[in-house]
Amino acid sequence: MELFESEFLELKEIVTPGLKKEIVAFANSSGGEIYIGIKKTSEIVGVADVEFEMERISNMIRDGIKPDLSAYSSLERINQKGKDLIRITVSRGERRPYHLADKGLKPGGVYVRHGITSAPASEEAIRQMIKESDGTAFDKARALNQDLSFSYAEEYFKNRKVAFTESNKKTLGLITSDGYYTNAAWLLSDQCEHSIKCAVYKGVGKTNFQSRKEFFGSILKQVEDTYTFILLNNNISSDFEGLYRVDTPDYPDYAIREALLNTVVHRDYDYSGSTIINIYADRMEFISLGGLVKGITLIDIMSGVSQSRNSVVAAIFYRLELIESYGTGIGRILESYENLPVKVSFAPAPASFVVTLPNVNTSSSSLSENTEDFVVEDKILNLFKNAESITRKDVERVLGSSQFPAIKALQRLIEQGKIQRIGKARSTRYILNK
Length: 434
Hints:
Blueprint: E1 9-12, H1 19-28, E2 32-36, H2 50-64, E3 65-66, E4 73-80, E5 83-90, E6 99-100, E7 111-114, E8 117-120, H3 123-134, H4 151-159, H5 166-172, H6 183-188, E9 196-201, E10 209-215, H7 219-232, E11 236-241, E12 244-249, H8 253-266, E13 275-279, E14 283-289, H9 298-302, H10 311-319, H11 329-336, E15 345-349, E16 352-358, H12 364-382, E17 389-390, H13 392-399, H14 403-415, E18 419-422, E19 429-432
Parallel strand pairs: 1-2, 9-13
Antiparallel strand pairs: 2-5, 3-6, 4-5, 7-8, 9-10, 11-12, 13-14, 14-16, 15-16, 17-19, 18-19
Helix pairs in contact: 7-8, 8-11, 12-14, 13-14
């Protein structure tokens, strides 16, 4: 009986290092058979030293392919037309994706069967195989990047007096039973690719941008850096009660802390986008990707119901005493505003969850004044859409104002670095800063 290559059959004349790729591809697909000692043309040439080659193949499977594929592969000696052959039978494995040990969980190390060829799997296909094998919990699944370092996390754990040995990493859920780093480990590692983006706006909208920061690295580092940045923008308002001065921050410190930790711990890291924090004159927004966990409503979480999306990350933050107990974050944020005239708002959406902390020091009159300033500045900046330079008269015309309000508005834009003055006296003009 002649054999021909197919989706489930591979023919090889001799054993080569490339054999591992074929075995991996069958294990990641629907299984198959590999015959050693048969040419691609189906000509049987045989194997000279079957025992030696079978031992060589066994070593390849044991040492060159991960996870362990021994239970899903078998080797046997067969004879066809008087010549010895080796038949390798590979079943579809339960710990997919299988990969070349020296290449890792990357397209260069993970192969799947396409027709009569073994092709590198895409990153999306690798992620899907991991989900099917490890479950849908992101932080418990094997990380694509297994080349991780933990310089920041190690120091952080040391300062918090929490052990961070290899054994502890397994206990914490950072390493699987078969030695793979989980996505929780990746989030804590120096190689974490997610980030937190912070933006500060002068006003209640996004027209007047003031500053921006983006924080990278371990999510522990991101939390620390972001918290420091927010506190620098948490202004203090002073008043007097009798003889004594009373300082009130724009936002209760506890509310900031809980909102930030909730955003980092409970976001959906299957989304590649950044966590967003926007600071306006009247409010601070924490935008977490992924929406609420399926089956949980806003009423549930405001009542203290807790269903963590990232249970490994949540448990680690609890061990580090960053969070006190499960399901109390929202309640603590609400308590921070309990005796204040403004209230926190929550806005769940299919792919996001927004917590908005109101500025406790923003009065309606000052907010109205600021808003009017921003509208005026927008009108002036819009003049540059049709002209490279403008005059004070242009500004008076578009604002419908006299000379003084126009000069005042232009001066504000100069101080903000958005425009500059050129020329003197009657030849004075204004241009945009590049």
